[in-house]
């Protein structure tokens, strides 16, 4: 039995009787509606298989793999046909979610130390300045449904090779036009810290933050004007995620420092606007700090108001405790509780600069396996179940209650999620097809487990071929 057939045999038993898919998964042709054209694509693809090489088998239609198995069976055709036939309004517009993955460009050596590599790409080690590898990555990200690349951004003064690597590799990929670009500002790496916290009373912090925001704006100007890539916009503004903004502020009880922080961020935003032409849409790494209790401290609420939205780099707080744990039902329930707490915490917060509500962007990261910290382990099925649990809460409870009437507008074209890292090997929650992954237990799909689970939850990346927002 082939690997694909074996995986299909194990997974097919889960699909008995007619299955109703999410409308955006049944939108197989990716045109933004569901209808007979989608069923036609499925009929043409039936009984084909992908294989578990980096490149799919010839003749395999990646769009038709609605169950994320790598095999197109008759039950997949039936599921799409059933979903189309039972749609309340045939040909109604479909809003496929926007999925954001962290994309790193600091791999300057082909061979990397074992303790700095907790996953390894199925295609072998790679260099970040290689456009051939980045082209391959883009094909896979589009196949497995990752919409936006949040490019890890570290200033040249600290890591001189990262931005040249992006220019030589990522932006030079043959299929760069299929990708949307945001940035991930590595704030606690870029700014001086005291005890791993950023003191905004220091003149050096102010000058460096303003300098970095202007430089990030220039990177996005190049992504918009010099390369085929498209910039990811929310509310008409380019999106910048911030890593570890929860470390902003040396003294939580110092109101003067928080007022200074607001002023410095305002200056940085103004510097960004002067270069790009629009202010950035800032997404702070605040979700876990605001969700840690039912009554967050005033400093956390004050810091959260600096951002248009909040996210978490990953869902697990792995610095607490020392025992490895699993992505199981209890873990999923904990993350849902955190989302509920965060929703309550930000309900009364208005952004300092726009006076608009603060959006929650859930983290769907698949695992964490950094050496020296407890390992969050996940199977393919556990990750798929986790994705569905959190997306169901977000789309059926949070968005209708907190953001009625906003979906489908420039402010929020579709539900938005971060899915963790595409290629961050050091911390272990990468979703690229891997030769091994310490966060993945009992692989069913030859290292494609996390990627295939994403495909099952979201379908392929429609936005490779059409705009997120017209």
In total, how many beta strands?
14
Return residue spans where pLDDT drops below 50 for at least 5 consecutive residues: 1-15
Give the C-alpha Rg. 22 Å
List the secondary-structure elements in sequence, H or E.
HHHHEEHEHEHHEEEHEHHEEHEEHEEH
Q: Could you state the CATH homologous superfamily of the largest domain?
A: Glycosidases
Overall CATH architecture of the largest domain = Alpha-Beta Barrel
The amount of helix comes to 25-40%
Biggest sheet statistics: 10 strands, mixed
Overall description:
The protein folds into 2 domains: 3-85, no CATH class; 98-464, Glycosidases (TIM Barrel). The chain is built from 14 helices and 14 strands. It has helices at residues 3-12, 23-26, 36-45, 74-85, 131-143, 162-170, 187-190, 203-225, 255-276, 287-291, 298-304, 329-346, 380-402, 449-458; strands at 98-103, 119-121, 148-153, 180-185, 230-231, 233-234, 237-242, 281-284, 309-310, 325-326, 359-360, 376-377, 416-421, 434-437. The strands form 3 sheets. Strands 1, 3, 4, 5, 6, 7, 8, 9, 11 and 13 form a 10-stranded mixed β-sheet that branches. Strand 3 (148-153), helix 6 and strand 4 (180-185) form a beta-alpha-beta unit. Helix 8 runs parallel beside helix 9 (255-276) and helix 12 packs parallel to helix 13. It is globular, with a radius of gyration of 22 Å. The N and C termini lie far apart (46 Å). Mean pLDDT is 92; it is low at 1-15.
Task: Provide a short characterization of the protein structure.
The chain is an alpha/beta fold and 470 residues long. It has 14 helices and 14 strands.
